[in-house]
Structures are given as structure tokens and as C-alpha cells.
Amino acid sequence: MVGGIAEALTFYNTERTHQGKIYGGRMPLETLIDGKTVWTEQRLG
């Protein structure tokens, strides 16, 4: 069961595209990385 949950979360976060304004068709992991990049640039820049 644990392996199934891990596989489902991996698929959900890295392979499945999402709908909506925030995601814009991107995957959650892409959105997280992009947001972190923007935050870092604003914080350090």
C-alpha cells in the first residue's frame, strides 16, 4: 500500500498536468520550482 501511495504522489506531482489559473497547465513540481526561483530572485535581487 505504501508503494502505491508513493507512486500516486509521484505521478500527481511530476507527470499529471493541472488545470486552473495558478498552475497554467504545469505540473505541481514545476510550479513549486518556478515559484521558488521567483521568490529567490526577489529576495536576493
Structure, explained:
The chain has 45 residues and is mainly α. It has one domain. The chain has helices spanning 2-14, 28-44. The longest helix is centred in the C-terminal third of the chain and has 17 residues, at 28-44. It is elongated and about 45 Å long. The mean pLDDT is 86.
Structural shape: elongated
Give the beta-strand count.
Answer: 0
Question: Helix-strand pattern, N to C?
Answer: HH
What do the pLDDT scores average to? 86
Our measurement of the CA-to-CA distance between the termini, rounded to an integer number of angstroms, reads 45 Å
**Total tally of structural domains:** 1
Class from helix and strand fractions: mainly alpha
Could you name the ranges where pLDDT drops below 50 across 5 or more consecutive residues? none
Question: Helicity range of the residues?
Answer: 55-70%
Number of helical stretches of at least 4 residues: 2
Radius of gyration: 13 Å
Main pleated sheet: none
